[in-house]
Amino acid sequence: MFTIRELSQLNVRSAALLAESEINRQKLLAECATLQPIVQSVGHGFGLFRRLRAGYLLAATLVGMWAARKGGSRPDLWRKLKLGWRLGRALLGAWAGFKAARE
Fold it and tell me: Which residues form the domain of 24?
């Protein structure tokens, strides 16, 4: 078995390892505290993007349709107003659906 001297060396080594482990734990907690605001802001950014993604897709589609319509001939004022009215109604409907889904 172990002698008294070997046991005391093992106890000293165990205490040193425990102290080192506590130091490393404190360093890790400090690093986590430093990173928390960064991770939180990234999370808010992704959340905002996810909430607005449907709006981006709808806006891109509408701009593409508008550009395609404008390419063939020069529309008069009435056609522009009519298109703007339809786009506005579609966006309001999409916004209402988005707000209802959030609640």
Answer: 4-102
